[in-house]
Structure formats: structure tokens, C-alpha cells
Amino acid sequence: MESNLRADLFDPAALASLGHIEVVARWIVDGFLSGLHRSPRKGFSVEFADFRPYQPGDDLRYVDWKIAARADRWVVKQYEEETNLRATLVLDVSKSMEWRSRPALLTKRVFAEQLVAATALLLLRQRDAVGLIRFDDAVRTSVPPRARTTQWRRVIAALAEPAGGRASDLAAAIAQASRLVTRRGMVMLVSDLLVDREPVIAAVRGLRAAGHDVIVFHVMDPAERDFGLEGEAQYADTESSLAVPATASDVRTAYQATVAEVVGEWRDALAVVGASYELVITDQPYAVPLRKAFDARQRRP
Amino acid sequence: MSLLAPLYLLLGAAAGIPLLLHLLRRNIGTRVDFPAARYLQRAEQEHSRSLRLRNLLLMLLRVLLILTLALAAAQPFVAGMGAGHGPTAVAVVLDNSLSTTAMSGGVPAFAQLRDAARRLLQSSGAGDHLWLVSANGRVRGGTKDALVAELMRMAPEQDAGDLPLAVRRAAAAVQGSALPSRVVAVATDGQRSAWVSSSPVDVPLALLTPRGDPPRNRAVLAVDATPARWTPRGTINARIDATDSVGFRVLLGSRTLARGAVARGEPVQLSVSPPERGWQAIRVELEPDDYAADDVRYAAAWIGAPPGVMVDPSAGSFATTAVNTLIADGRAGTGSDVRVAAADAVAALPALMTPPGDAVRLGAANRALARLGVPWRFGAVDTLPVAARGTRMDGIAVSARYRLVREGVGATDTLATVAGEPWIVSGPGYVLLASRLDPAATQLPIRAAFVPWLADMIATRLAAPTGDAGAPIQARAGAAIRIPAGADALENGAGTRRAVTGDHINAPDERGVWFILRGAKRIGAVVVNAPPEESSLARWPAEALAPRLAGARGRPSVTADAWVHDTFSSGSRRPAVTPLLLLALLLFAAEAIAVRTTRPTAA
């Protein structure tokens, strides 16, 4: 991929069609970081470690010009990046996440996996420890947080495991996350939030009480936000026996109003317990949720 | 309201579809995966009232939309609704009788009536059924354009036509139509004499008559040239109708015989002995006025030397006296051109023959008839008193006669009958009476009409050359007439020639004297005049004529606009398709607005 193109701004479905999740996640993170470098922020929090002789290709910003003036030799300053964050990515792989409203879109699960993979890579590049929990009605995969360079491959391998295809139990997954992350850290929940709100809020409250930062990515298909379907049908929940007869054109506006209420309720309830909330639509580029994740990381000491 | 295509109302059953969908939507069979169904359920619960109202509104709009479209497809016609007019069966009766050639306001009445008829036809719609009926009762059907073209080709006829017949045929035409509205539209000059015998028709009728009074008319009502064959003396009688004195001129051929002025009601009588010979045209004309058709009237006469008549004593004393009177008057001469005798005494034709005075001679008489080629024989004696019937013969008593028995073939005319049997017959070169010319057998010889009748028989039946018409044929324009056998052409005074074949033809449409030609020889004349009744231009008022034509369903008009309006409003039903389609469009727009822009109220 050309360096002047930012993959994090691409259409997710188009991007996913270009390669494996591992490759695509790298493009996303590279694109994201290249955009970041052009911003006023200059980089991650780092500490000086040592000098080494200058080699062609080294960034001239890291040349120690005082030594060069005094000793007439070029040395480059080396830094040791901080690794004081432990992040746990909690991914919902329930049956409802397998849905997409039209073939041109990614399913919510695939979109969420790309987002998790890119976020994990972004954090690991900062020497943060990253763990992964995949859940449906129970925790299906648990990768403890590590900062090793091989950790990302473990995360990718875990993402490749088959999904459970059952209902969600987000509260249980959060409880599992709290057990995995013993030190204070960051917990990023990626789910369609088609669950009862109160148990989830209670679980998030527990995480917050333990000192964790919590950011919730609410993944939605565009049709789940706008109800852009047509016709009259029994609209059936994929995880329960609920089926609602409706004519799309008749209830669309009422549905949109309800979704806006639901989003507001989640945002308000999470805000009350000190968690961040971000609505993510599966036809939007990854740049926005990545930025949220990055900002959440930057707020950590 | 009536429907042109009522079967399309069945489409209204489709209105049940949105109704059923509305009622049965809880049983919708199609199942669609939608993980956020809980949001949908919550939306329906929270907005149930507004959604119910909205669904009800949508259902009503859709049902109404379908019903409206179905009704529009059925093509309803509603009184007082819609634009234009409904499909109407219209038969336009255009009075093109001779009287419509009278000028009115500088324009012939016919031109005004035809223009009004053209406007009416052009106001018709694609769904109308149209007919055009002329004064002679001829019915033409077709499209608007075809009938307008036909209308513009129409010209005034040369006679009165039969307008009541035309209206009846027009009524029959529209009554045979399946269209709901049927109208007869009559454009006429309202001439009283044309509408004497009309009886109301059972369809709405829109009547147009010209506004105002007819023009003052001076007319030559009749011209008579007597006798039919001048020898060579004859008399011309003319009857002139005028409100005051009027100048006239009498012509024989192209020669003026007399001119002068005649007072109102005064007859014109002119006795002449002209030098011309053969068939001649006689013309009496007045100073022109606004109605030229009756300013000239024609007659014809054959002019020649008087025939020589030889009367035999066997014909009786009354016949002898009558012939002597004709000779003394110069209407006959002495000679053997024509014989008057008892049949048994006749050796050659032409002859006027009576039965023999002695019954013993009856056989000889019949043998003589057979020898002469006369296809009649004297039969049994009948002495029952009866009255004769025939021209100049009505009421003449007959007390003794021989029954005439037809034997053989040959052309023959029955000039008079008694008890339904031939009494006087005629054929080529003969006139045969079944009674003696004796008061003991018949009153004919002692009646005043006897001598003129005898003169006519001699002049027209016996003295005329073989094959000659004898007397001029009076005919109306276009009427069927019978002409002498062997005629091959008609020719008028202007030299216009028209070939004919056979002995039954239609009289020419052009008024005047048409000579019957056999080769270059004139053998008779056809006189074509305007019908005398067409000279009376008195009109019915429209308000009086309309009820005569259609009772209470007749609508009088004096302007073309009102007439056209009355014609197409007589049915009073107009198509409601356009308003219904507009209503459907409004319903469709309302449905679209309800679907797209209605905001539910949060519960």
C-alpha cells in the first residue's frame, strides 16, 4: 500500500477485502500513526536509554548535535519506551455480531475483530501489554495481557478462533476481564450491546472501582441505526425467540427515535460510572474508534 | 351516476389487500433476521398510539386510493360533475331544403345553419357517436372529421325535403346507440310548411332556428300552359304571390311574350298564338328578391298546327258536336289525322273508339280492335249504375258499359275506372271508351269537361307523333319520372345535355324545362319547378316548434353557441374520470407524505 494513503480512513469492507486481518491491521495502524505524526503531538512517552553510532537512514532528529560539535562524531540517542499500561480488549462474538444488513458491509464481528486487531497492534507498538477476551454467553477465548512482540500474533490467532454463535453475556465477560487484569489498566469493550443494560453497568462500575479505565465501543450496522430495510416482515432477534411484525416504512421514524434513545441511555449510564462510550457504525472508517482508543491510552499516566 | 365500463368496478376488490395486510400483519409469514429486534419492539411499544393512528390513516388512504382508481376505470358519468361532456350520441339534422336559400342578413339561411352544424360537430369529443341527416332524410354516420367534410359538401336541395322524416330517422339513429346520452340536434329555418306533419320524438332535441323574421317574398306560385298542345293557340296562366304590385315578364323560349306589373292577388293570363313550333319552354319571372328560388317558374307546351279530325256518325251525336266545336274553335281541323268512331267502324289508328251502338256489332268491334293491335276487347254488358274515377272523371255517372277485357300485350294506360275496372284506356294511337258517348250510358258527353277532355285526348294522346310525350311531365327535382320509350337525352334551354337510358329516370335537380330528346328531335319536356309550398317562408317560433318536435324534451335556441351547449348538456351527465384521477393523485400524495414525513409522537 502506498505510504501516502491512510488505510485507517478507508471503507472497512473495501479494506478487509485487500488482505488478511493481520496485514490489514498493520495498514490501519501505519496509516493512523502517519496521520498522528503530522499532528502537534510528537510521539509516545519515552525515556533516554543509550547512544549508538549514527547509521545512514537514521532520523536526524535523534542525532546528538552537541557531541557531534565537540567530538566530531555522530551519535544517535536511543530511548526506552514506557510499558506501564495493561489493556484488555473484550470482544463480543455472540450470534448477533454475525449479522450484516447487506453483503457490501462487514458483519459486526468482522468489523470488531479488525478494530481489536488494529488497537492491539497500536498498543503493543507502545510497549503496552495487551490481552484479549472473546465471549458470547460465556468467555470463549482469554489471552492474558502481555507486552511481548509475539503477543500480537497470539491476539491474531485468538481472533481467528471460531465464534460461539450464542447469546451475549457481557457482564460475565467483564468480570473475567477484571480477573485477568490485576493491575490498573484499560478495558476496551467491543460489542453490539444487545444485552440488558443494568448488569453491564454494574460490571463496568466494578471495573471502575478497581481503577480501570473503561471504553465501550458500541458496534452497529447502519440498518440497526436507521432501520433502512424495506417491506413487511417478522423481524426476528437472532439470539432469542423475539419476532416483531412490522412494515419498515411505517415504523422507521419511530425506530430511529428509539435507537437514539437507547444510544443516549448507554452513553449516560456509562458516563455515570465514569466509562467512555463510542458508537461505531460498520460502514465508517477505523480512524475514529482508533483515535478514541489512542486518546484513552494517552490519558493514562 | 352511470358507468361506461362497470366491470372495472371489480378492481375495487383490490382495496381489500391493504385492509387485509393491515388486519393480518401480525401473521406476516416473511421472517427476516434482525438482531436489533428489541429496539423495534420497544419502538412499537413506545409509539404504539401514534403508529396505530398512522397505520390506520395509511390504510384508509390506500383503500381510498384503490377504490378511487377502480371507480375511475369504470368511467362514471355524474350529473353536474367534471369537465367537457360525456359520450353523447348526436344526430344533427341540417335543414337544407330549398327555403334555406332565402337570404337573411345578407347571408343564406343555409350558410348560417351549416356553420352552426359545423361548430357543433367540431365541439364533439372522441367518445361521441355522430350522424348527419339532411332534409331528405338521408342519414350519414362517421367520425367528426368525415362528417364535417360531408357537411361542407352539402348544398341546398331543390325541393322541400321531408324534415319530419329526417328527425324520426335521426331519433332512430341515436336510440340505437349504447351511449347513455342521446340527442337530436336540429338546425332549421323553421318554415311552417315544412313542419306541419311532425310528431314528437322520444329523445332530447336541441333546436336551432334563425333569429328574426323571414325575408319578404314575392313568388310565382304556379304557371300553367293550356292546353298541353297548342294548335298553335294557347294560354299561359300564372299565379303570383306578392305583398304589393310586382313587375313580371313572360318568355317563350328566349322571346319575351309579355312584361308588366301585376297587383297583389291579380292573376296573369296571356293568350298567344306563337309562330314557334314543337316543344317550347315557357318562363314567368319576377323582379329578384331575397329568395330567388321562386322568382322564376317554368312551363312547357307543344306548339303546332291543329290535327285533322274525322268523326264518324257511329260515335254518336255528342261526339260529332264536340268535334265540330273544336274545329270551330281552331283547336282541330278537318282531316283524317285522328278518327272518332265506334270501334267496328275504325279502319286505322289513331282513333278514339267507343262501343258500337248495336250489340250485334260487338263481335265486329272486337275483331277490329284485334286487327288494329289494341290489346282490349269489349266484354259483357254491365248496367249497374256506378261513378267513374280518373282525371276529370271523378263523379261522372256510368249506367251502361261493356267490361273491358285485356287481351294481348302492349303498353296501355288506364285513364278512368268504374267499380275498380278499366273504363277508359289508352295506348299508342288509341283511346278506348267502354261506354257509348250517350247520356243513356254515361253523363260524360253532357258534362262541361267533355269538350276539353276530348281536345286533350286528340291533342296529347292521338294527334301527337308516335312516341311523343304528348303532355309535359311536371316533376320535382330528383323525383322519379317516366319518359317516352326511346328517349336518349335531356336538354335544357341553355344547351346542357344529360344522357338517359330506359324510360324511368330521376328528374334533373336543376330547375327549368328539360326537353326529352330522341336523337336531335324533341319528343317531350320535363318541367322542374320549386315546390309551391316552399314559397311560404313563414316560420315557427323556436319556442313553439321545439315542443312540436320533442314535447317537453325539446330545447329551443336562436344562437349557435346556445344550441351547441344545449346539445351536449341534454344528456346532463359528464365524465368524472378526470376529477377522480385528481383525487387519486391527491390521495397518493397524502399517502407519500404520511409515509415519509409523519413524525411519531413519543409515548
Describe the protein's architecture and organization:
The complex is a heterodimer of chains A (301) and B (603). By secondary structure, chain A is an alpha/beta fold. Helices cover 41% and strands 22% of the residues of chain A. Chain A has helices spanning 12-16, 21-37, 65-71, 108-124, 151-159, 170-180, 197-209, 222-226, 248-272, 287-299; strands at residues 46-53, 75-81, 86-92, 129-135, 139-146, 186-191, 213-220, 232-236, 243-247, 276-281. In chain A, helix 4 crosses helix 10 (287-299) and helix 6 packs parallel to helix 7. Chain A starts with 11 loop residues before the first helix and ends with a helix. The longest helix of chain B is centred in the first third of the chain and has 26 residues, at 48-73. Chain B is elongated. Chain B has 12 helices and 38 strands. Chain B is α/β, with parallel strands linked by helices and 603 residues long. In chain B, helix 3 (48-73) runs antiparallel to helix 12 (577-597) and helix 4 (109-122) crosses helix 11 (560-569). Chain B has a 9-stranded mixed beta sheet, with helices on one face. A 6-stranded mixed beta sheet of chain B has the order 8-7-4-9-10-37, with helices on both faces. In chain B, strands 12-18-17-14-15 form a 5-stranded mixed beta sheet. Helix content of chain B is 26%, strand content 31%. Chains A and B meet through strand 8, strand 9 and helix 9 of A and strand 2, helix 2 and helix 3 of B.
CATH superfamily of the largest domain in chain B: von Willebrand factor, type A domain
What CATH calls the topology of the largest domain in chain B is Rossmann fold
Instruction: Bin the helical content of chain B.
Output: 25-40%
**Gross CATH architecture of the largest domain in chain A:** 3-Layer(aba) Sandwich
The description of the largest β-sheet of chain B is: 9 strands, mixed
Distance between the termini of chain B: 46 Å
Low-confidence stretches of chain B: 598-603
State the CATH topology of the largest domain in chain A: Rossmann fold
The helix tally of chain A amounts to: 10
The largest beta-sheet of chain A arranges its strands as 5-4-3-6-7-10
Average pLDDT level of chain B: 87
Strand content of chain A: 15-25%
Number of domains of chain B: 5
